[in-house]
Design brief:
This protein has 263 residues and is mainly α. Helix content is 77%, strand content 0%. The protein contains 12 helices and no strands. The chain is elongated. The mean pLDDT is 85.
Length: 263
């Protein structure tokens, strides 16, 4: 077999292994997935009228806040799902299976590729589920064209890839799964200090640059523009730049950490 065929075969085997782990240990995935669903229901049904009045500057209309909230929750879903990736990678490192793989005649990057592809697939399924819940409670995107829907889906997949590589790097350097979970918490915490729940211009002036130029805000605003027809401006380029930069950083970080000789 050619080296490419071997790489594809071994990566497929590792992907199948990681998907089987998801089936065998569903509690971690369910816990991470329930967080954005609970937040969606909480902010819509408990805070929805008040938040709609504040953002719209007038009467309360929960449907307006649903439209505003959903793009941010979709990105938060991706961040939460990748925490499970960091924990899974750390478990492989601490339980010795990675050391076993190092001694086998397999394509070494296939171990990481299996984790990354498996995590991206989980992110896509999680986003679809959260999106379905959002549609069920009133989210609508009637003005988006087919091309805009495709672009929105592509942006979500690109950010899933970027955050997954970062999560893999966090898992590789963590001494245990608990530490990996803590190290990856910024992936779900950063959306709280972005434009996911309130507009950036409603935040204190000193805090606005922090919220505006972190990775999630440009992605959220781009997603809103694609799905709801709002102004995208420079956010599209910033979102792509952040996604590509995080992907490259996470890839080389993960590759370097994985190839480092164990202590």
């Amino acid at each position: 077999m050619s080296s490419l065929a071997l790489a594809v075969r071994d990566s497929s085997t590792m992907l199948r292994r990681n998907l089987l782990h998801v089936r065998r240990y569903p509690s971690l995935t369910l816990n991470l997935l329930l967080t954005p669903v609970v937040l969606l229901l909480l902010f819509v049904y408990i805070f929805g009228d008040v938040m709609s009045a504040g953002i719209g500057g007038g009467g309360a209309d929960r449907s307006d806040y649903i439209a505003y909230l959903v793009p941010g929750l979709l990105l938060m879903t991706i961040g939460g799902t990748t925490i499970g990736t960091a924990v899974s990678v750390s478990m492989d490192m601490t339980e010795g299976i990675i050391a076993r793989f190092r001694t086998m005649a397999i394509h070494r990057p296939s171990v990481l590729i299996g984790h990354v592809v498996g995590s991206v697939l989980q992110c896509v399924m999680s986003v679809i589920l959260v999106g379905a819940v959002a549609v069920a409670i009133g989210f609508r995107s009637t003005d988006a064209t087919v091309l805009e829907w495709v672009a929105a889906f592509g942006l979500l997949v690109l950010f899933a890839m970027a955050l997954t590589w970062i999560a893999v790097g966090m898992g590789l350097i963590s001494p245990n799964p608990e530490a990996a979970s803590n190290n990856a918490m910024p992936l779900i915490f950063l959306p709280f200090i972005s434009s996911a729940f309130v507009p950036v211009d409603a935040m204190p002036g000193w805090f606005q640059p922090i919220a505006e130029y972190q990775p999630f805000t440009p992605a959220i605003e781009t997603l809103r523009g694609l799905l709801l027809g709002t102004e995208i401006g420079h956010n599209g380029w910033l979102a792509l730049a952040w996604a590509l930069a995080l992907t490259v950083l996470g890839y080389f970080w993960s590759k370097t950490s994985f190839n480092r000789d164990p202590k």
